Amino acid sequence: MTSDEIGFLGVSELAALYRARALSPVEVAKAVLARMEAVEPRVNAMMRLTPDHALAAARRSEDVFLNRGTPRLLEGVPFTIKDLQHTKGIQTDFASVITQGTIPDVDAPCVTRLYEAGGVIVGKTTSAAEWGWKGVSQAPISGITHNPWGKGLNAGASSSGAAVAAACGYGPLHQGGDGAGSIRMPAHFSGVYGFKPTHGRVPNWPMSNNDLATHIGPLTRTVEDAAYMTAAMAGPHVWDYTSLEAGPDDYVGRLHAASMKGRRIGYTRDLGHARVDPEVADAVEKAVKAFEEMGAHVEEVTPAWGKLGPELVRFFWPATFTARLASLPKFESRMDPGFVAMIRHAAGFTVQQFMEMRTRRFAYVQAIHEFMEGFDFLLSPAVSVAAFPADRLQPAHWPQHEWDWLMWAELSYPFNWSGSPAASVPCGFTPAGLPVGLQIVGRRFDDLGVLQASAAFEAARPWAQHRPPLA
């Protein structure tokens, strides 16, 4: 088996090969690192590789299998961590010149849990957007993270490196974070699976200063791998006071235990207000039919709350980044110009405005939850557009703005504020051969349900056999 083939193996496949002693964790770590070295010049998905950490952990896992010990959930399985997440002793730049060169002295809880589950860290992925501010895979300190389906094209948002790593066969598991779509958008653009669990399901530390919108979750090639990774990271943690008291469900064991027959599913083309490119809308509409074929009751809907989102997000998204205003005099010339423009736009917001808008947003979130009481799941496009050049904030055929990229991402951020579980599932390709994602949203706390619906769609419309050309 070549290093390229090894890099595309899933968690359960690796575990079976380890138990049979047909492959060792050290061989796998070396193969994945070799795969990264070979492919990275074409995609730029990694901020840095961690060969010393990887091989040390792989040797420990190898001893478990050689001595017939009891393997942990992810024993010997490679994973990557996003460069916005603290990793003890491993440089973490947070995608900004302001914090470039930081070496944390502690691991974030999700990192600790992946280690404790037996995982093998192979590197830090690019957070290709300064401080995660935009949905485009370009940051001043790392350059463009290229879409694996088209060099120079957007791979989408701050978890783009993780999505590209999953698509390119850098092992099965890749951690992402999602504050307005930054797991689901990269999954859509790169043709992989991205799962944003219920807020608090996976502890988030340090807590993002964005009013509890950020969720931690996996980007993977298969739903099963996402179930494994979520199970390893989930559960309460004292560092995150919003983390849920309940431990993870049996996501892997129950993944295929539910039928879609008779499920009540809402389908919205645009939330009643969003612009969606026809090639994306067509792929999603065809994907929705898979749920009808599985026996679900699908109803096309236009949520009344949908049209209230744009004004709210264009207030809160800039507002949450104004803490960086003090850094502008020293660093502005080396920062993303769009990021600077957005911060300056929000600099005049008042506390009174913030509290008034917050009251409106709470009512908006309540309306989302009331709406979801009528459905098991809500389906929509994950993103309004297919991949476009990563040196732009908006596609050329869309309205232009110095910082507003949110116009093509109106379908994702509502479910950050609501804390709902949501996923982007690969559902097809545009005529130009670019991936499209179907968004599946569940009721709050129903992480298992979203994983099960994703797995049902994956079985009905398999996609993992598709691999990017890396041209």
Report on this structure:
- The protein is α/β, with parallel strands linked by helices and 471 residues long.
- It has one domain (3-460): Amidase signature (AS) enzymes.
- Helices cover 35% and strands 15% of the residues.
- The protein has helices spanning 3-7, 11-19, 25-43, 51-66, 109-116, 160-167, 184-190, 223-233, 278-293, 309-319, 328-331, 337-346, 351-372, 414-417, 447-460; strands at 46-49, 78-82, 120-125, 138-139, 143-144, 146-147, 150-154, 173-178, 193-196, 215-220, 264-267, 297-300, 377-381, 422-429, 435-442.
- An eleven-stranded mixed β-sheet has the order 1-3-2-8-10-9-14-15-13-11-12, with helices on both faces.
- β2, α5 (109-116) and β3 (120-125) form a beta-alpha-beta unit.
- α3 packs antiparallel against α4.
- The longest helix has 22 residues, at 351-372.
- It is globular.
Concise overview:
This protein is of the alpha/beta class and 471 residues long.
The secondary structure category is: alpha/beta
Share of helix among residues? 25-40%
- Percent of residues in beta strands? 15-25%
What is the count of β-strands? 15
Biggest β-sheet description? 11 strands, mixed
Q: Quickly give the CATH architecture.
A: Alpha-Beta Complex
Number of separate domains: 1
Q: Within the largest sheet, what's the order of strands? A: 1-3-2-8-10-9-14-15-13-11-12
CATH topology: Amidase signature (AS) enzymes
CATH class: Alpha Beta
- Shape, per Cα inertia axes: globular
**Taking Cα atoms only, what radius of gyration do you get, to the nearest Å?**
21 Å
Low-confidence stretches: none
Q: What is the chain-wise order of helices and strands?
A: HHHEHEHEEEEEHEHEEHEHEHHHHEHEEH
Distance between the termini: 23 Å
The fourth-level CATH homologous superfamily is: Amidase signature (AS) domain
Helix segment tally: 15
